[in-house]
Input
Amino acid sequence: MKTKIERIKAMAVEWAARVGHIWLFVAASVALLLIVAMINGLFITSYLWAASKITMAGAIGYALDRAAFPGSDPRYLSGIEQSMAQSRRGVVIAAAMIAAGLIG
Output
């Protein structure tokens, strides 16, 4: 019985490592959405609008980085060049998300 529990625990840890920690944020977001729905259901549409707008801005920021710097994908670089390309991509995506958040 104990080995079965340890095996299930190891599988869960492996799955979490493979999928990444982004699912924790998704779960927290869904939990907060359910709390808001219980308090006032009318806020769900505002929440969904804001979430979709920010998500779309992140995708547009990523596309802008790929279009503006086609030969500098961080996956194919190494050393300081990879670090700078990752930082640049993060800044471009963040700028797009902030800009979308500031617009109505």
